[in-house]
Structure prediction request, 299 residues.
Amino acid sequence: MHTTKERIEALKKSRNAVILAHYYVPDEVQELADYVGDSFYLAKVAQQTQADSIVFCGVHFMGESAKILNPEKRVFLPDPSADCPMAHMAAEDQIGKLRAECGDLAVVCYINSTARLKSLSDVCVTSSNAVKIVKSLPQKNILFIPDQNLGSFVAAAAPEKTFYYSGGYCPVHAFLLADDVAREKRAHASALVLTHPECTREVRALSDYVGSTAGIISYAEKSDAEEFIVCTEPGVLYELKKRCPKKKFYPVSIVCGDMKKITPERVAETLEKECGEVFLDGSLARKAYAPLARMLELG
Ligand code: 13P
Ligand code: SF4
Prediction:
């Protein structure tokens, strides 16, 4: 009788597949993945892989983006129902209306979005490259979709631009309260606060560092501090503890239920039955490719 891990290893070889996992999926899935990282890193790995198939352990938009970047490869989601609610939080008519009103407008789309929203945008960004990309754009007006919190974080770093928002938010990060962070600060006076930019302005104001999941991990690793209050989905603690076994981490956020739908058993089943494959309309995929490719170029 083979273990799930052994089954996955054997199936991966026979299918010439690679397993990608985001830092928010359960620890045991991160442990069996070939590549674990933030959204930008995983998009780059997906674009460059030589494997025939990609099993993307994450939410729907991640598998969709991998397929857009690699139309000739097979991309599988261990649980296609794992979706990011924020990915849908922008209205198409707002995009059209603002394009008509402001001549000099760039539609900047967070990678946490549907293929349809990407196809209507000028450039995609992730939390690790959004400031750099927005600052490099020639347009003065920016419609930032769908995350208003990441958008306002970018706006603070790019005061030379005028920002418009679609009002979307991540239900995991947006409901992390400044009061809860303040309470943790009182309990751990020497701890530094590390925060994801999907958190609110009030939480970001209490933070020592704001950045993507990979940024948070790298900051904690390089810092001389020994204790950290972590304001993002607690899945990052697996990598944080691996890289910094002597440091202490106090998570504040609730979990992302969709990311936690991915299990080793589902990964094995996906490889075995080749189920959960991502299919996209060809013309939509071609339109969504340009903003994603531009992100990889500028980011
Ligand atoms: P990053 O890993 O790019 O920071 O993204 C966080 C996130 O919410 C992914 O869904
Ligand atoms: Fe979406 Fe938030 Fe979950 Fe990330 S943590 S996948 S942004 S709901």
The CA atoms of residues 18 and 50 lie 9 Å apart. The chain is about 45% helix and 15% strand. The mean pLDDT is 97. The first helix runs from residue 4 to 15.
